[in-house]
Amino acid sequence: MTICSSDEIIDEFELLTRDAGRVQQDTLTKILELNADAEYLNRFSLERRTDSKSFKSCIPLCVHSEIESYIQRIADGDNSQVLTGKPITSLSVSSGTTQGKPKFLPFNDELLESTIQIFRTSYAFRNREYPIGNGKALQFVYGSKQAFTQGGILATTATTNLYRSWRFKEAMKDIMSQCCSPDEVIFGPDFHQSLYCHLLCGLIYSDEVQFVFSPFAHSLVHAFHTLEEVWEDLCADIRAGVLSKRVTTPSIRQAVSKILRPNPELASSIYNKCQNLSNWYGVIPALWPNAKYIYGIMTGSMEPYLKKLRHYAGHLPLMSADYGASEGWVGSNVNPTLPPEEVTYAVLPNIAYFEFIPLGKPKGEEMENSSSIHYIESEPVGLTEVEVGKIYEVVITNFAGLYRYRLGDIVKIAGFHNSTPELQFICRRSLVLSINIDKNTEKDLQLAVEEAEKLLAEEKLEVVDFTSLVDRSRDPGHYVIFWELSSDNASEEVLSSCANSMDLAFVDAGYVGSRKIKTIGALELRVLRKGTFGQVMNHYLSLGGAVSQFKTPRFVTQSNSKVLQILNRNVTQSYLSTAYGI
């Protein structure tokens, strides 16, 4: 790819979105022509037709469990045209942090190209608002273990599939975002060593860093929390020009040692800046003075980390990265000045074929502050047929063999950019907490925690991380909320009040009614030892996951026994709500 200016990329995007309906039909035609002989499509007698009407009448909506057997055949070595015309040569592995079981999803060159297009588009709009020079990016990116399935298919995270690609690396050069760290750090076998070296390389090139990035806000917060603990060791390494003995992997040591030289002046500067910080507020602009912004996915389950990330960021703007999933990309952030809580994503009409299932709210459940709605579905509509202010579930048909696949994401139409909609991510559709007629989602859980967290402010405490569980071990069942706090100094009175606050914050009518008649028991707050969620992450990494893809599960099922064991053995205190009486 030749280097394109931001203006050229924006012009290309404007052209694409002026007639999004036509582009969508062209995209569907291209997908169906490329995969005309796919077994999955022929099963439903599509018979090589490529018009949207035939496609929708023949091919049903689906979820992962309904195509899992096809993907498993590919994993087992079936190289016939199972889902696509060309054989699938690699699989992406989803995070699997909720159920404890990752999903396989097909990955191919077309998905790689759509990723590059998404990244180039959002970069162009960011660069127009916050121009960056020929510098580097402090990127906290981590490859995962690359495994091969029984059939010899490479199976790894979507992040690893990207960063191992020569094509992707060349494209990233074109948008001037070279990582401070060498590849050996990104693909190192030990996350803790890689993180230490990311910080070290970032400090070595501190004056060249133009922005700070990680795929998720969680890994950004984790990185700078680690900096609080290891900054003196990093200064010692830079002062002496010798890498810490904590880094034992030969390939990482060799690669980092090539760029590490004795620099007492830089070490002293970093040391003085860290010492002068007040509780690490504004550490990022202090140590990386030329950084323009901080970039990563900050919506959905990442929102709870924004408060801490803003603390580290000081005056630097936070910018939410693009909208997609392991299944594929949906849209770019073309309004980079919006804060993460208000960010919207313009759908790129040529990267996949999109449909939207309208979700209606039953009477009596129209409460603005509750996302726990049992939605009434209507027939899916096309990309250009959505209406501003209404909510939908996203359906994707992509070039990698997913056809009318329900992503499970709820979005709101915030407006249009030319003729393509701008989406606001609301939440995952899957229920988080439900015992009988109650229905509470991840967003409801987040709102409840935020409400209770206000009571901690007076004691200068904050919730580091949280998750939840439906406990049916005794009748009636009840909600359990696990908290890890920034300190052990919270009083019993305050924590009891927090349990009551969360219990009352779940305003779903089914929950409130069930609590009043005691068919749902009192909410329980369980306080965890510091570092518990670090153990949860380490467990995930031990299964071959990548930290840059890690998302704390907001709901832990009984089948996720290992994570439940970690949580339960680290409980230090427990408080039952008395909000609805004892």
Question: Can you give a write-up of this model?
Answer:
This protein is of the alpha/beta class and 582 residues long. It is built from 20 helices and 22 strands. 48% of the residues are buried. Helix 6 (109-129) packs parallel to helix 8 (166-174).
Layout of strands and helices, then pairs:
Layout: H1 6-18, H2 20-34, H3 39-43, H4 52-58, H5 64-75, E1 90-93, E2 104-107, H6 109-129, E3 136-139, E4 147-148, E5 154-156, H7 158-163, H8 166-174, E6 178-179, H9 183-186, H10 191-204, E7 209-216, H11 217-240, H12 250-257, H13 264-276, H14 283-287, E8 293-297, H15 306-313, E9 318-320, E10 323-325, E11 328-332, E12 345-347, E13 353-360, E14 376-377, E15 381-382, E16 391-397, E17 405-417, E18 420-428, H16 442-453, E19 463-471, E20 478-485, H17 492-505, H18 509-516, E21 524-528, H19 532-542, H20 561-569, E22 571-576
Parallel strand pairs: 1-5, 3-6, 3-7, 7-8, 8-9, 20-21
Antiparallel strand pairs: 1-2, 4-5, 10-11, 11-12, 12-18, 13-14, 13-15, 13-16, 16-17, 17-18, 19-20, 21-22
Organism: Urochloa decumbens
Protein name: Jasmonic acid-amido synthetase JAR1-like
Domain GH3 middle: 345-428
Brief description of this entry?
The chain has 582 residues and is an alpha/beta fold. 37% of the residues lie in helices and 20% in strands. Strands 10, 11, 12, 13, 14, 15, 16, 17 and 18 form a 9-stranded antiparallel sheet that branches. Strands 6-3-7-8-9 form a 5-stranded parallel sheet.
